[in-house]
Amino acid sequence: MADTQYDFDLFTIGIGSGGTRASRIAAGHGARVAAAEEYRVGGTCVIRGCVPKKMLVYGAHFAEDLVDAQNFGWTIEGKSFDWVKLRDHVQKDIDRLEGLYGETLDNHGVTIFRERAEITGPHEITLASGKVVTAKYILIATGARPHMPDFEGNEHAITSNEAFHLDEVPKRILIAGGGYIANEFAGIFNEFGSKVTIANRSDVILRSYDAALRDRLLQISLTKGIEFCFNTEFEYVKKQEDGTLLVKLTGHEERVFDQVMIATGRVPNIEGLGLENVGVELGDRGQIKVDEFSKTNVDYIYAVGDVTDRVQLTPVAIREGQAFADSVFGPGEPYSVDHSCIPSAVFSHPPIAAVGMTEGEARNHLGSIKVFQSDFRPMKNVVAGRNERGLYKMIVDAANDRIVGIHMIAPEAPEIMQAAAIAVKAKLTKADFDATVAIHPTMAEELVLMK
Ligand code: FAD
Fold first, then answer.
1. Whether residues 283 and 364 fall in one domain
2. Is the distance from the beta carbon of residue 138 to the nearest atom of ligand 1 less than 6 Å?
C-alpha cells in the first residue's frame, strides 16, 4: 500500500464530518494519512452546527414544558433562564467532543496539522506554517460557510457561527432567511424570550418541504409570536450609538433590533484552496464537481461533503467520506453513495421531519397518487391546554401502493421519522403499514392508522 514516493497516501483538507470519517477509515485500511484543520477539529456539525444547535433546541423547549407542566399538576415558582449558563455548558461539551474527535484520529495514526492547507502543485500541499508535504491522494472536505448577502452595514450582522457565543439573548432579533437554520434559530430565540422577526426574500419558508407542513409551521410560529416579513431584502443596517441596529428592509419602515442574523444559505469553502493550481473544476454554485465516486476531474483529488453541495447534511458527508475511503483504500470493489430518499428534519418548535417526495413532487412525477393525512392534537398538548396540532402525511403511488413520501410536523417527529424512513427506503406499501399493529397510546401510531 505505502507509496514512498509521497509523504502520505492520503492528505485530507478539513477535519469535519466527511474528513474525519474518510481519514479514520483510510487509516484503518492501512493508508498513511494526514489531515489539516484550520479552525477546530470536528468541523461545522460538532463545533457550530447540528450538535450545539440541538442542545439549544433542548434548552429552549423547557420554556414550553415548564408552562405545560402546570396543567399536569406541577407548581414551578421563581423559574428563570440563564443564557450564559446554557451557552457555557454547551461550549464545554463541544470542547469535550472536539477532544474525542482528535483522539480518535490519533488512535488511528492519522497525523493532524492544526493549520490551514492549500494545494500548491500536483500532489503537493502547503500548510500555513510553510511546511510542504506530498500525498498520493488529496481529499477536499472543507465544508461550507454562511452566505452573507451584499448590503450596506452587513458587517453588523451575525451568522449562526456567532449565535452560539452571544453575551446575552437579544431582546429583538431579525433573522434573514427561510431555510431550516433560520426557522430553527427563530424557534430557539423565541422560546428564550426574544421578539423574533424573520425576513425572507420570497413568501415561502422551507421550500423543499411539503406545503402542508410549511403552512402548519408558519401558522404555529405566528401563534407563538414570531413575525414574518416576506418578499423583502435589506436596504441597510446602521449601528446606533447605544449599540442597537437600525434596519431598513424594502417595503418596510426603519426598525430597531438588537441583533441581525443572516441565515440565507451556505456556500462551498473553496477560496484559497489552490484549486486553480491543479485545475479542479467547479460547478455554477462554486461547488467542487465530482463523479459518483466523489472524484474530481483531477485523477488523484476527491471531494466529499458540503463543498460538493450535493446534500448539505452531516450523515451524507459521513457516508461520502466512508465510501471514498473504502473505495480507494479498502480491499473491496469501489462503491458510491445512494443520494435518493434521504430523510431530514427541521428542529423548529414543533419539529418537522420528512422523507421522499412531497405531495407536489409526487403529483408531477407519478401522476396518480393517494394522499393519507392525520391531523391530530397530541394528548400531551390536550392536557397542557396547548392548542397546537400535529400533521402527518403519507404519499402513496396509486399504481403499486408503494409509499413514496412521509411528512410530519409534531413533537418528536424526527425521532419517529428515522424509523419510518427505513420503510420508505425499503419501498414498503401502505398495506404493510396497515398490517402493522399500533403501539398505543403514542403519536407514532398515527402512521399505521391512516385511512
Ligand atoms: P464541515 O463539517 O464543515 O468541515 C469542514 C472543515 O474544513 C471545517 O472545520 C473547516 O474549518 C475546515 N477547513 C476549510 N478550509 C480549510 C483549509 N483550507 N484548510 C484546513 N481546514 C479547512 N446537518 C445535519 O445533518 N443535521 C443538522 O441538524 C444540522 N444542523 C446544522 C445547523 C447549523 C447551524 C449549521 C451551520 C449546519 C448544520 N448542519 C446540519 C449541516 C452540517 O453541519 C454539515 O452538512 C456538515 O458539517 C458537513 O460536513 P463537511 O465534512 O462537509 O464539512
1. no
2. no
